[in-house]
Amino acid sequence: MKSAFPNITHIAYEGSKSKNPLAFKHYNAAEIVEGKTMRDHLRFAVVYWHTFRGTGSDPFGAGTMQRPWDDGSASVSNAQNRARVAFEFIKKLGAPYYCWHDRDVAPEGKNLRETNKNFDAVAKVLKEEQKRTGVKLLWGTTNAFSHPRFVHGASTSCNADVFAFAACQVKKAMEVTHELGGEGYTFWGGREGYMTLLNTDMKREQEHLAKFLHLAVAHKKAIGFKGQFYIEPKPKEPTKHQYDSDAAACLNFLREFDLLPHFKLNIETNHATLAGHTMQHELEVAGAAGALGSIDANTGDELLGWDTDQFPTNIYLTTYTMLSVLKYGGFKTGGVNFDAKVRRESFEPIDLFYAHIGGMDAFARGLKIAAAIRKDGRLAEFVKNRYASWDTGIGAKIEAGKANFKDLEAYMLKKGEADASNSGRQEFLENLINEFI
Ligand code: XUL
Ligand code: CO
Hints:
Layout: E1 12-13, E2 23-24, E3 32-33, E4 36-37, H1 38-42, E5 44-47, H2 48-53, H3 76-93, E6 97-101, H4 102-105, H5 112-133, E7 136-141, H6 160-179, E8 184-187, E9 193-194, H7 202-223, E10 228-231, E11 241-242, H8 247-256, E12 263-268, H9 269-274, H10 279-288, E13 292-296, H11 315-327, E14 336-338, H12 349-376, H13 378-386, H14 393-399, H15 405-415, H16 426-436
Parallel strand pairs: 1-2, 5-6, 5-14, 6-7, 7-8, 8-10, 10-12, 12-13, 13-14
Antiparallel strand pairs: 3-4, 9-11
Helix pairs in contact: 3-5, 5-6, 6-7, 10-11, 11-12
The protein binds D-xylulose and cobalt (II) ion (CO).
Cobalt (II) ion binds next to loops.
């Protein structure tokens, strides 16, 4: 096969002094941080959809991307060829993982049977290429939002047939994920929500969503798939409201319907922003519940306000992200998946390399800075001391369940006033973070 990137052999680590735009300045895969290689901490994944199917179109204009290897047809042979190009790219970049939606990798046929056949034909190439390159599948997922049949949602559609069709898609995509040794499977409910409550039975729709996920859990067991299931929160877009709107809403939904033991969360930066949260907030909500699974790494443009899915280059963002990830024990099955796309104006193939190198370097720096902050210990010590009143005396009694309202009243009547004399020191802590950045 003709090389799609003939001028690039592989992206090497050249250190922070390098001026080579096609080299890593900070991501040194084999370097040890907190006892683990950067490769194993970050577990970078390239997304198939934006990187190999993104056209650069937006609501106001047509696609702009130059992808000379792609003949633009919806044929299986074009999809197979594209898959080989994808692996050339991922291998040269040095990312250990990739992720796909079923419909990114293979074209839809004229009916379900033909669609599944197309998928198998491309999955065969994916398997060969995974073997050839050593690149692994972080997670697979289903696109149950693009086709017009999903106009009213997939598992939350008012039409039972659509639920059935989406189930067939998830069944097949899970089986292919399993066949390819995928380490996880993600559910993102793109149209699992509503545009208007006037036509929506929300209770019934949420019950259907839960039913769907229980069926997926049962099928997972039936086929012996051991990968991790993830739910990816997002509040809106394309719907006005999506049921898995943020980490807290997802956790509540999973608990209400007895699904929590089977799922972790895949937290995406730009989705957090759309929900009115920071990434750090979403990671802390997930982490505190023992449900921090994986991240979709990107960033939004605060002035545009929609899901712009840009590559992350902000060192504060990656530092805070990695502080939370390290705090909750690091990635087990998940990783840093670049659910990000090059700008419409960055249409040359080489821009795909620049984008990923930038994102990987930004995360490598975030990791190193977070590790340095943890090693320094002042931040953690400050937080620990801030809660010192809970370690002894009345605080310890409350935590241990050994004080009721009457006891607290007796305590405070004797004391007369509560002690809240310690400063929050936000500015001091912000300065402390800046010492490391
Ligand atoms: C959409 C989004 C999806 C999921 C997978 O905003 O993030 O690409 O990551 O369906
Ligand atoms: Co995503």
